[in-house]
Amino acid sequence: MYVLGVWDGHDAGAALIEDNRVVYAANEERFTKRKLEVNFPYNSVMAALYYANIKPTDIEHVAFTTTEFTKTLERVFPKMREYYYLFRRRKIPKPSFENFRHNLKYTLTTLGVLPLCNTVSSAIIAKHLKHMGFRNFKLHIVDHHTAHAAKAFVSPFDKALVITIDGLGDGLSGTVSTMENGKLERHVAIKAKDSVGIVYEQATNIIGMRELEDEGKVMAMADYSYPFDFKDNKLKDLIKVEGTSIKAEYNQRKQFLFLQSIAWQTPREQFSYMAQQLLENTLTKFVSNAVDRFNIGDVVLAGGIFSNVKANMKLRGLEHIKHWYVFPHMGDGGMALGGALYTAYKLTGNTKYGFGAYLGNSYTTDETENVVKNDRSIQYQWEGLDEQAKHAAELISNGNYVFWFQGRMEYGPRALGNRSILAPSDSEEVKERLNLHVKKREWFQPFAPSMLESEAAKLLEYDNKGVDKFMTMAYKVKEEFKEVTRAVVNVDTTARPQMVGAENVPYMELLRNLKKYTGYGIMLNTSFNVHGMPIVLSPEDALKTMKDTKTKYMFINGLTITNRGGF
Question: What is the model's pTM?
Answer without folding.
Answer: 0.96
